[in-house]
Amino acid sequence: MDRLDLPGLLAELARGHRVPGAQLAVHRGGRTTTAEYGVETPGGPPVTSGTAFPLGSLTKPFTATLAAMLADDGDVGFGTPLAGPLPELGPAAAELTLARLLSHTAGLAANAEDADRAPSRRAWAEEHCAPAWPGIGAAFSYSNAGYVLTGHLIESVTGMTWWEAVEDLLLAPLEITPAFVAGPPTARRAASGHSVHPSRDVVVAVEEEGSPVEAPDGALALSAADLVAFARLHLGDPSLPALLGGDTLLRLRADRLAGAAIGPYGMADGWGLGWALHRRDGAEWFGHDGTGEGTSCHLRADPVSGTVVALTTNANTGLAVWRDLVDRLAAAGVEVGDHRPLADPGPPVPGPPGCAGAYANGAARFEVSEDGAGGLSLRSTGAITCFPGLVFAVGEPPPRGRTAHAGRFIGGGGRIDLIQVTGRLARRLPPGS
Description:
- By secondary structure, the chain is α+β, with helices and mostly antiparallel strands.
- It folds into two domains: 1-339, 3-Layer(aba) Sandwich (Beta-lactamase), CATH 3.40.710; 357-428, no CATH class.
- It is 23% helix and 25% strand.
- It has ten helices and 20 strands.
- The strands form four sheets. The chain has an eight-stranded antiparallel barrel. The protein has a seven-stranded antiparallel sheet with strand order 2-1-12-11-10-9-8, sandwiched between helices. It has a three-stranded antiparallel sheet with strand order 3-7-4.
- The N and C termini lie far apart (55 Å).
- The mean pLDDT is 93.
């Protein structure tokens, strides 16, 4: 690892996947090494160690950390129903807890529906906190809505806006100045995202169109070095302020899905409170991925060795850079945890009988169609290749489709009742719905 040329490796991988700009930060043996490549946008300023990249869903662990700080102070409880601090939610709050929100097991919709039309997080929460699909029981289903509601909880308890809380309570003690893609302007600017179209050989800048109401689930923009500092906070690094107690740090990365019938397939091997868990060769790394409008960012940390790896990119092909980076680091002796359910799926098999149809999670629909010759596809996403165990790939299948979406059908007694695509769970709709 010490002999690895991080700047050269980052440049090679970014160029190979047409990424205009990227950052890589690796913390190992008590020392952080950084590398930068390219430009914020073609013809624009160069990427530096301080360039802020939109984090997308990698914002969620920051929101979870803020909520955990409130729990440490006794202002909220991880397992206490939210009916107390959020009475405006009505009867649904009796079934909601902070732990369920942070672990994506609250049964809320995948998307924060109508957030762009809501005047405030409170107004949105009053209308959208009911379960999207009651009756399934404890199950993982990735939910932006749960983190919008967590942001509302933070604002209600602190009397601050989410932007003020994340900047003043969390980032300022770490000496990090944030940028935001939705919300008030700051002294720091966020880099632009880009869409890479290999077939047309073009790279196009895209605008981030975040809703202020959805800021707690995806509005932060930071650098790879900032992400490393944040992960070191969660490793209990004594050189950083102790914003959370040691027991709380352990609680946040303890697997809440161990033994659950429906876990985070397609996203992680397990899930804590804000952190995804990735297992590799007996080690369990915590981290999170984030995809914005033309950006892809990734963070992993090993609590045993103290190693942290962070990658930020300003292109939709950044996931391919990350996958290649993980493989190259492994060859250099650093086995980074990364969930790859389709790494060795076995030979393709016919799709399960009766899997075609429409499935829904809130307003989100997943429509599986059959072409008459046994071929399956997911509407607006791509072809489905099925493998043993009811799992499937959407898009180009392995081994070439290394960044294909992973999904699975779920059912029993010869009937398919649910579908899970990249962690989002959806229930089958009656025919004609």
